[in-house]
Amino acid sequence: MIKARVKAQNPDAGAQSYDQVRKNFSWSEAEKAFTWHQTGKINIVHEAVDRWATLPDKRNQKALFFEKADRVNSFSYFELKEISCQWAALLAEHGLEPGDRLFIFLPPCPEIYFAILACSRLGVIFSPLYATLSYDDLEVRIRDAGPRAIITHPDLAERIPSEAGQIVEHLFFTDGPLPGLFPGEVLVPECLDQMPVEFEPRWLNGDAPLYLIYTSGSAGPPKGVIHAHRDMVGHRVTGRHVLGLKEQSILWTDGDPAWITGTVYSIFAPWLCGATSVVQGSPFMASTWYRTLERHQVTVWYTTPLTIQRLMEAGADLPYRYNLKDLRHIATVGRALSPEQFYWVKKHLKLSPHDTWWMSESGMICLANFPSMDIKPGSIGKPVPGIEAAILDEQGEPLPSLTIGELALKVPWPCMMTGIWQDEARYRDYFRVKGWFLTGDMAIKDEEGYYYHQGRMDELIKVGDQLLGPYEIERVLCQHPAVFEAAIISKSTQPDEQFLKAFVTVHKNFTPSNRLNQEIRAFVKGNLSPDLPLKEIEFMDELPKTGAGKLLRRVLRAKELGLPSGDPTQLGE
User: Whole-model pTM?
Assistant: First the structure.
């Protein structure tokens, strides 16, 4: 367990400490920030956009900056309201109703955000998809969700299965010419100007479905996680308390909307807080990322350890070429932020990055290093206000501090998923211990209540009488001077014989060899345990990760078994 501690240093930490906020917090009080607390009329778009668009001092504030290939489009709250009304009217004119599903299958563009707001306004369940999805991956999702419509671009038309025409009623294209491959093709630009700029939101109950997000599991096909309009309560709370958002904040969440982080923290959370959201639609380049922070005077940046790693590889001199004086807070998500990455950011960006933990099923950040809280590098922090967490054993009993077990969250909370699309059994399995949501993640809690992520539950490794998580072994592997990245999986030749295999990438000045293989194994055993059953090491050019940078051990297992694993870059979680 890491003993180092870094004092809270961000200027936006606020007057109240973590303990004070947590002690005084209640979800019922948090709900009073919304107009529906008085009116009873619920729709997330009204709270995120419309309410600001009616205020004279807010209506012209920029809600969205969208940049791609150096071209910047900006939209005020008032403009977003009018555009989303036109889009909603267009969808309604083509028969879409509350409860219908609509897929958003587009390359990065402002229309993604218009479509999401329009669906939310109508009560239509939107599902954002990666533009890089394959024909087969798209077919699986279409068969599962049965969308009534798809919004897409002609360049992606050939990837849409021809059989989709039997399920999908309308294909809305954001650009022409129409491909002429499907019945029900609609060219959006030709229709939009004829649509009214006023369209009252459909008033719904809090449990009305808002969106369907597909995410990978450790086994089985992608699951469609369902979230509801009531999620807005958790979005706003975490936006304010974890990211420190104020109405004058400029937030850049550099995640694709097909990843839940991009949906929640590029769209709903900042706008529910009355802040400005920045979206960068270009592929990653270190210079582009620094320039985005500088150009848009970003004050809060929500990113991933994978992005931090890429910036590190680009060199320590690069950040000094840009004016990042407006940046006040950095948070990360996707996988545990390593101490090395933490200290690199602290040294070269002059801010301590604050790691967070959550998952698609939780709908919001659930554990975090808060702006007002000391950081222990390597920790994912403490539970957010309104969330109670615990480490449970196999019988669902709480474990003492410094004991590895399954991370669980006490139910309910506003952003908790409402279901898995067409898979009730898979949904109920999360709640098999009464009163708890079982995350499937391993973790340890220290004596001060800080949590440390240790990988997935099905990756526990027993060494003698001790249970070790793969993350702990991988960290020791990465302490070897030759090892750049590492991943551990367990293997077995027979039911009662388990051993480990490591997949590693090496630094540029090292060459994989049998001798290096033996040196690394000896190093790990010497630093952990001589009984560690590390029998194999395989050198790789790169490790499989999701688009969010999360390591995919499942893909490595599939590789070992000679099974298909799909394209990991399509997996958002």
Answer: 0.84
